[in-house]
Design goal:
Elements (H helix, E strand, L loop, with lengths): L2 E9 L2 E6 L2 E9 L2 H10 L4 E6 H6 L5 H10 L3 E5 L5 H9 L4 E4 L1 H5 L1 H11 L4 E4 L2 E2 L2 E4 L4 E6 H9 L5 E5 L12 H10 L4 E5 L5 H9 L4 E4 L1 H4 L5 H5 L4
Parallel strand pairs: 1-4, 1-13, 4-5, 5-6, 6-7, 7-11, 11-12, 12-13
Antiparallel strand pairs: 1-2, 2-3, 8-9, 9-10
């Protein structure tokens, strides 16, 4: 059964969504992220993808108090990302209640540090963020492109102990036009034992069903929930 992972993106402690990672295209959905997290929990969902967009920009964890509040006041399994750029940031995230932490930019720019985290905490706790634009890795809140092929990047880290990856096709994110099925199929073919978490572009429940048929491990859903394209009731049958 595919893991349903609703998303909360944070700017200034508020629940927002961006379009294609553009901070200029920001929409505030709720001033109180805990309220949103409790709605997910009440619907029977077990997980939460929490992203510190302020942190991604500042290159350090900023919204750790929101993480702490959600982790202490819900039973959700929280994976946290955004701005985790140092040992101290990682420690703050885990001490604030994150069950897993995603490293994206750090895995590109400071591979030795990311590998150290993998060895210290293990592949169950450290998720590889592999965001792509035209199949090339994008970093720093997607504001920077690279010439690194996403498939080679992920395969190299799987060999070093990565078990989970969250991969977003930047071109699809926030547009409600469907996810990048080809990206995930290619990742599956390259790394058959990897737990792939699809993110970006989910437009309706049929997208979730197709990813489930592909045996994708998990799917992150954000805007489709907030824009009422997918109801929490629709998702309950996946969270049995």
């Amino acid at each position: 059964m595919i893991q349903i992972i609703p998303a909360i993106d944070l700017i200034e402690g508020k629940c927002v969504r961006l379009t294609q990672g553009d901070y200029g295209q920001k929409k505030i959905y709720n001033e109180n992220p805990l309220e949103v997290a409790l709605q997910f929990q009440d619907a029977g969902l077990k997980r939460l993808h929490l992203v510190d967009l302020d942190g991604a920009k500042a290159k350090k964890v900023v919204n750790w108090k929101v993480l702490e509040t959600i982790a202490s006041k819900t039973s959700l399994h929280v994976d946290f990302g955004g701005g985790v750029q140092s040992d101290d940031d990682l420690k703050i995230a885990f001490e604030s209640g994150a069950k897993q932490v995603t490293g994206g930019s750090i895995a590109v720019k400071q591979p030795d540090l990311f590998e150290h985290w993998l060895k210290t905490y293990g592949g169950e706790k450290i998720i590889l963020g592999a965001d792509a634009k035209n199949e090339k890795i994008a970093v720093s809140g997607w504001e920077e492109g690279t010439s690194i092929w996403v498939y080679d990047f992920v395969e190299e880290y799987v060999e070093k102990g990565v078990k989970y990856t969250i991969s977003t096709d930047v071109a699809k994110d926030g547009l409600l036009q469907g996810p990048s099925f080809d990206l995930y199929k290619n990742l599956q073919d390259k790394c058959p034992d990897l737990n792939i978490i699809a993110s970006g572009g989910i437009a309706g429940i049929e997208d979730v069903e197709k990813l489930a048929e592909m045996n994708i491990y998990g799917v992150i859903i954000g805007k489709a929930i907030y824009e009422n394209r997918i109801s929490l009731a629709d998702l309950q049958r996946f969270s049995v």
